[in-house]
Amino acid sequence: MKPYILPIEQVDRDGDSKPDDLNGIGATDEEERIVGVLSGVVRDVHAAGLQAFTWTMRKRAHAPGLDLQGGSFGECKALYALGVDGTFGDFPDAAVNSREGL
C-alpha cells in the first residue's frame, strides 16, 4: 500500500535507462530514490467510507526518497500529512510520535 500513497522512484537524469548513482558510491540503492507523483488513493479510500493504513514502517536513519531527517519518523509524518489513518511497523513509537503536531 505504501508505494501507492507515497511513490518512491529511481532517478535517470542522464536518460540511459539505468538508475543514477546519486551518492557516488559506485552502485545504486534505495537511498537514492525520490518521491514520485502523489496519487489520490487516500482520498478515494476515505470517499468510500474506509480508513487508509499502510505498512511496513521500519526504523532507519533516512527514509528512501524523502529529504527528511528522522528516517521512519519523517516517513510516517509525511504519510500522516497525506491523510493516512494509521501505519503498521516495527517501531510504533516512531508512528505515534510522528502524529504529534498534525
Quick structural overview:
The chain is of the alpha+beta class and 102 residues long. The protein has helices spanning 2-5, 41-47, 72-81, 92-99; strands at residues 8-9, 34-35, 53-57, 86-89. It is globular, with a radius of gyration of 15 Å.
Report on this model:
α3 links the parallel β3 (53-57) and β4. The longest helix has 10 residues, at 72-81. The protein has one domain. It has helices at 2-5, 41-47, 72-81, 92-99, and strands at residues 8-9, 34-35, 53-57, 86-89. The two termini are 22 Å apart. The strands form two sheets. A two-stranded antiparallel sheet has the order 1-2. With 102 residues, the protein is an alpha+beta fold. The chain has four helices and four strands.
Topology:
Blueprint: H1 2-5, E1 8-9, E2 34-35, H2 41-47, E3 53-57, H3 72-81, E4 86-89, H4 92-99
Parallel strand pairs: 3-4
Antiparallel strand pairs: 1-2
Strand content: 5-15%
**What's the arrangement of strands in the largest beta sheet?**
1-2
State the low-pLDDT regions, or none.
none
The whole-number mean of residue pLDDT values reads 77
The general outline is: globular
Structurally, how many domains make up the residues?
1
**Structural class by secondary-structure content:** alpha+beta
Q: Main β-sheet, in a few words? A: 2 strands, antiparallel
Q: How are helices and strands ordered from N to C?
A: HEEHEHEH
Into which percent range does the helicity of residues fall?
Answer: 25-40%
The total of beta strands comes to 4
Number of helices: 4
What's the assembly state of these chains? single chain
Q: Gyration radius, to the nearest Å?
A: 15 Å
N-end to C-end Cα span: 22 Å
